[in-house]
Structure formats: C-alpha cells, structure tokens
Here is the input.
Amino acid sequence: MIGTADNTARKRAQRTAALSRRDALYHGHRARASAAAGDLLQALLESTPAGRPVSAFIASRSEIDLAGVVRWLQRRGTPVGMPVVVGKAEPLVFRRYRYGDALISGSFGIPVPRGDSEVIMPSVFLVPLAAFDRRGYRIGYGGGFYDRTLARARAERSVLAIGVAFACQEVGRVASDAYDQPVDLVVTEREVIPCR
Here is the structure.
C-alpha cells in the first residue's frame, strides 16, 4: 500500500475516470443494464431468508437503478432500508423504505426516507460504487460512510456486502487504505464477481 496522500490523489483520479465512463452511458443502455444487474441480484438473493433486512439505495445522478430489485424484495416481505447520513464521521443509519413512500432531500441532495421512519439493521448491504476492482475494493464518493458502516456491522454481526455498479466502472486495482472495507461480491449487468 502506498501513502495515504498518494492514495487520496489516486482514488480521486480513479473516481473521476470511472464516473466519466458511467456518465457517458446513454439512458437506454443504463436502463437495460440496470435491469440485467437486477436480474442477477434477484437470483443471488433468492436463497436469502425473506425476513433478513437488506439495505438498498435510490439511484442518483447516473447510478445503476435498483428500483426493480427494491420492489421485488418488498413483494417477498423483505424489510428494505435506505442509507441516511447522520453526521460527517458517523456510520450510516438505514431507515425503512416501502416503495411509494414520500421521500425528503437528504445529504448531498439524495432522496431519503423521513426522519420518523423505522431504523433497521441490514444483514445484506447493497452498496453503490463509483469504482471497483475484482478484489472487492471500492471507491465511493469520498465520505467514507460505507467503510465506517461496514466496519461497525462486521464487528457486530454476520453481514454480506454486495457492491452494485455498471461494468464500465471496474478499474484494474483500486488505490486502497487500511480502513477501506471491501465488499464480498460485485454485481454488474454482465456478471457476479466473488471477491472474498
């Protein structure tokens, strides 16, 4: 591993390049790729007990869209939580979301469930990725929220972390630091990548 200052610059460059590739995908391709990744995710999660809580995320900007997966999870009775930022250096909190619930604008303008929504403790995390590699290391948007969240969850209970992104967001080797929490699997529109 190289020094943290060097890694910060490398991560920024990898994030920018991967997000540029993601942003360049035209809308029709993003919709088809989101549906294909959703099909792979559903097949992967079918063996998970329906009552086991799952975290998801609402697509923002040009992110992969998991709306179909969220609807499928809710039809099978799975509690779904959406990430809410509660403080700059804090782990995320996951608030219960039912498809169609009114949302409010959260940190970074991302829609989140209202503050009076039930807090859930996910056993399965669907993690958004800005960039990823096949070792499971990921780059998010720079706040470290998922690293803190996964570190705490893994210290408390058995969890499964699944990164979800478009295939074009893959990089050869993510610049990683000691505090980075890799995901166990990555799902793209093309494949399920076992990482750990």
Observations:
- Helices lie at 4-24, 27-45, 67-75, 145-156.
- The domain at 4-194 is CATH 3.40.50.10420 (Rossmann fold).
- The mean pLDDT is 93.
- The chain has one domain: 4-194.
